[in-house]
Amino acid sequence: MTFVVTEKCIRCKYTDCVEVCPVDCFYEGPNFLVINPSECIDCALCEPECPVNAIYSEDDLPEQFQPFLQLNETLSEAWPNITRRKDAPADADQWTEVEGKLEYLEKEWPKV
What we know:
The chain is an alpha+beta fold. It has a single domain, classed as Alpha-Beta Plaits, CATH 3.30.70.20. The protein has three helices and four strands; from the N terminus they run βαβββαα. Strands 1-4 form a two-stranded antiparallel sheet. The longest helix has 10 residues, at 67-76.
C-alpha cells in the first residue's frame, strides 16, 4: 500500500509532509508534490502533516481522486526528489479551498 497526494495540493504545495518522510519518497513538480508508490513504506507520517489534507492512504482514497494514484506514480518518475521543507508558493493560501484544480497542474518545469 502507499499514500497518494491528490489535487488539493495543486498550487498549494506545502512541503511539511516532505520533512517527516523517513524514506524520501516525495517528488516535486512546479506546483504539486507526488509520492513514489514503490518507495512509500506506508508509515503514515506525512498524512497528518499536510495542512490542506491532500494526502490519503491508498485504501481510503476517495473515488474522485482514484486517478491520482497513477498520476503520482508517473510524475514521480519524471520529477526530482525533494527531501527538505521549502516555503510554499506566495499565493498558496488563496488555493487551499479551491476545488477542481487538476486543470492547473503543471507537469513540466519551466525552461530557464
